[in-house]
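Notes continue from the previous slide.

Worked example: a multi-chain complex. Inputs as given:
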Amino acid sequence: MTRTVTRAGQPLPEGQDYDVTVIGAGVVGTAIARELARHRVRTALVEASDDIGNGTSKANTAILHTGFDAVPGSLEARLVREGQRGLAVYAAETGIPVERVGALLVAWDQEQLDSLPGLLTKAESNGYHAARLLDASRLAEIEPHLGPGALGALEIPDESVICPWTTPLAFATQAVLAGVHLHLDCRVTAIETGTEPGNEPGTGIHTLTTTRGPLRTRALINAAGLHADEIDRLLGHDAFTVTPRRGQLIVYDKLARDLVRHILLPVPTAAGKGVLVAPTVFGNVLLGPTAEELDDKAATESTEDGLALLREKGRRILPRLIDEEVTAVYAGLRAATGHEDYRIKEYPELRYVAVGGIRSTGLTASMAIAAHVTDLLARTGLDLGAPVELPHVTMPTLGEAADRRPYLDAVLIAADPAYGTVVCHCERVTEGEIRDALDSVLPPRSVEGLARRTRAGNGRCQGFYCGARLRALTARTRP
Amino acid sequence: MTRRERTVDVLVVGAGPAGLGAAAELAASGVRVEVLEREQSAGGIPRHCHHGGFGGRGGRAGGGLSGPEYALRCVAAAERAGATLRTGITVTGWAGPRTLDATGPGGLERITARAVLLATGARERPRSARLVPGSRPAGVYTTGELQQAVHLHHQHIGTRAVVVGDEPVGHAAAGTLRVAGVEVVALVTGRPPEPLAVLRRGPGAPVLSRTTVTGLTGRGRLAGVTVRHEDGRTTTLRCDTVVFTGDWIPDHELARRGAVALDPGTRGPAHDTSYRTGEPGVFAIGNLLHAVESAGTAAAEGRAAAAPVLRHLATGSWPAGRTALAVEAPLTWIAPNLIGPGGEPPLDNRFVLRTGRRRAAPLFEVRQSGRLLHRQRLLLPARPGVPLHLSADWLDRADPHGDTVRIRMR
């Protein structure tokens, strides 16, 4: 199978129309493209930016949720539950790092403590039966660095942390290997839905105007994340509005990792899920997110107030964390629609599925969303045929708890000494891994893209030692 | 396939001026010394400091060499003395006391030494660690990354830059920017202006004192740095490049992973005047101990550590409890920060300290359990970013098994 990945400056392929085009190559769009790749349809995946997973998908809390706290009976509750199982299996197959660290909803006052039994009941009504209540002494025993005053907790043993970067990368790589066309730097600016001469009304071709020229497709899936409402409006709808909700996060150094064993969740309130402390699969500790309603869909800035708030909350949860060095600060925008559920809707007459309002649970639910959307698409009349096996993909060994990172793998180094040459000292990323990323099906276009594929440059020094070299290595592969 | 297990007399981690200085002295004494360096070439930070001032007499600043010349000289001295230098080898952790695991293109090793010298140096805190809010655009550097980009990789930097910090390293960064054809808009520092600064410095960018950086703007590429003066005025400096300088932190990962106790002031290993840490057989030298002093000081500490290392190899003895030295604000740290049992004097019979605030005519007071051990007036003002020196003449009056010795500056 030929691999088709195009970017700015290259023409879009001419000739045959696509059967399906997915707009948006975030974790949901890539998951849908991967699902479609199992069927005999010509699929395009178009992305406005220069890389996959470049929006909400790259900046979140990276938790693989059980869905214990979803609204029972909602579409989100079902897709999170199914998606969690699917993604856990897929991650094990492909090498996406996952750590089942478990979560603790920590009660810091009597009111919170009183609400834990209700949350336990809610978890059970969501089909999750492993949750249990812990008293203060048991809590102190399993999480010894917790701040004073914790009264008890609800334990969710199956909550896990996952790599937010290799998940869409695995989906997109597999899709491209199976024949899906990926068009980067390809922003959709207009959509015209025509009727072909001699065809029935409603079976027309969509002509997308993109920043790289026209693209024709029979069916359309809108997985544009923060911009899903704008795409929806291009089709004449006014079904929902995406309000970006900013989450600022602080990543603490790996030397802080021993301070925390579980994902420490606050007891949810009306104001949202609140600030958590969580290990990451890269061996760091995450503190965040804030929740700020904005109207600018590009406002991924951190703020003085936001960081101060996080430090104040973090100091209460895990006092010693605040004395540790900060590795990184980032902010992500979740796609809130002011509606407590996903906004997935099919329009059979348009051969169109809108996938909106995929909030912070989108990473967990991505594979189940893809299966659900593909079912809806089949109902719009597209003949998908029987599914086929996808080519196997193996993701780079990014997890800190992986059996053996390349720099520790004597067999690998003996076969190829490049895996023994460490380039990024903080993250222990080797020349061999960087070369592999640059040679991969979806090579990075920037040092940030390289960081999401290898961890290189993501460490505590933030480029003091390796930044210039990484830029040189990345630039060398650019046309 | 497993790890190749070996033993050496002395293992030095880090081939900067400190590690190379120690290796040269020890090898000259006939000890089997091996130096492991994770970079592809030895020499440490001076390799990319193209300004002059290296290699002064007595190991102090003010010499006539450039950084790269000085780095070559350090390497040559260690090799000439017979030390084994191995570059491109990363020490990844501890397998036991004085036993380190390493990764290199030749495979995995486990090296046990009779003495381990940690000389892993220091780095500048990047923008994120300083919690500077705003966007995350391209064009944000530390001095270390900037110097490598310009001097080792000849990369394009930008057109207009702001330098955060006005310590010597900030001025070095400004110099590197000018070499790269970048206009330096300003140096920004939270500190008050230096008296007579105009006389000390040549023509260059203005220094905005009593001013802090409050954020970065620009999506994709840096567009500006927002700053706030201590009187509340704010403005945005238009630029496409910003360099965060100074604010050094010892690269203490290996020390911490080995459970080597740190000093709360320096954030480097707590150590006595013989460079002994809390872990038997583990010494620490150079900028790992206290973040950045001059390369000459780091090299001198390395050389000075040779005698106590040789003593340890001969006797195997290691002090158990030692009395700590602690500083009061505005002093930020003192090194060495433990008193050894024998009352051995520190390098040049003086302790090195740093202050967070300027003092015109500083007076040091050293006390133990309230008892005054020493008073000393300094001739020059105490300034942030510049080493202060406290005489060690009082050492024999301190109780090496007593309470913490406290140093204050008035």
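Summary box: Residues 295-315 of chain B form the longest helix (21 residues). The radius of gyration of chain B is 22 Å.
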